[in-house]
Amino acid sequence: MGVEAGFRSTHPDAPPQRKNARDRARRRLRRGARDLRDIWEIRSDPSYRRIARTYELPDGSQRIYCYHIRKTAGTSLYLSFMAVGGEDPMDVWRRITSSRLQRTMSGEYIIASNNRKVLTEGAYFYGRSHRSFTRQSLPPRTFTVTILRDPIERVRSYFDYLMAGDDPSLPGQVASRERLIAQDGFDAFLDRVPVPRLLAQLAMFSDGLDVSEAADRIAGCSSVFFTEDFADGLVDLGRRLDLPLEVHHARVAGNRLSLNDGQRERLRLRLEPEFELLRRLDQGGIARIGSTGSG
Asked: Residue 97 and residue 49: Cα distance in Å, rounded?
């Protein structure tokens, strides 16, 4: 009876809830094994840690981290830092995406992306991720930067990006399932887009979409500037970090959506929390369009 019951519990025709529970358990085990392997490699490889200890920025920081909000020119900033080692930044990017730990050396600089444990450990010169403020811990002496954008222009750019997709030569392609939310036009897109993606600037700095909380956390960043002033912001950032940062543009969509009056008003109303966030930043002297916000 026990054998028969055991056979039924693992049979392909077992109830879906049992299969789902087994699948979840297997995924947890695989994630746990992968996490242990990653932590062992990060902490046992002395080369990255030794090199990272040599970094010291003018303000005393040891590394730079970008809170990368999608469609605010964060990828262009990423390319600018990947170029500081003297290589073609696209070559550096491809090495990072093909690396299990999402990091590489370029000249004397360690560039890291997305791997939560690598970014937490801090053995890098420049790191970035799309992870929200509370979901990515950073070590002390980290120079933090973020780029903001006019909310309507950011969402319009996001829609164009989903419609056009990526240049096939670029690493890190947009997921086809994500593109589906834009396939039936802008009005349908507004009905479908998850709120954290619509209010991505606010969501990056407050999981609960609290404007005051987000404004306080942005105020704590070392550097804040706007997509609209990207070139000036990059010059100021390079001056503060004593780095030869140059503009490298990426992911410019070929077709620009033209919003009618009704769509623009609907979008403006949906984005009011982000407009309020920008007003708070302006009133607090933290950042505004037309200023690098460097303090």
From this structure: 20
What pLDDT is stored for residue 4 in this prediction? 42
What percent of the chain has pLDDT above 90? 70
Q: Pairing relation of β-strands 103-106 and 109-113?
A: antiparallel
Note the pTM of the prediction, 2 decimals.
Answer: 0.84
| Alpha helix (H) residue ranges in the chain | 2-10, 16-44, 46-52, 74-82, 89-98, 116-121, 151-164, 176-179, 186-192, 195-198, 200-205, 211-219, 230-241, 261-270, 272-283
Query: Is residue 110 a contact partner of residue 89, using CB atoms and an 8 Å limit?
Result: no
Tell me: pLDDT of 236 over 70.
yes
Q: Which of 78, 79, 118, 124 is nearest to 101 (CA)?
A: 118
pLDDT tens per residue, range 60-76: 999 999 999 999 999 99
**The tokens of 161 are what?**
């990006």
Does residue 279 contact residue 208 with C-beta atoms inside 8 Å? no
Q: What is the CA radius of gyration of the chain?
A: 22
Dist. CA 135–CA 238, nearest whole Å: 27
Distance CA 295, CA 288 (A): 11
Q: How far is CA 54 from the centre of its chain?
A: 26
Q: Give the span between the Cα atoms of 231 and 211, in whole angstroms.
A: 27
Contact status, residue 191 vs residue 181, Cβ threshold 8 Å: no
What type of residue sits at position 13? D
> Do 48 and 110 form a contact (C-beta atoms < 8 A)?
yes
The backbone torsions φ and ψ at residue 65, rounded to the nearest 5 degrees and listed phi first, read -130, 135
Can you read off the two tokens belonging to residue 44?
A: 């046992």
Answer yes or no: are the C-beta atoms of 290 and 225 closer than 8 Å. no
Name the CA dihedral angle for 188, 191, 192, 194, rounded to a multiple of 10 degrees: 140
Cα 92 from Cα 221, distance rounded (Å): 26
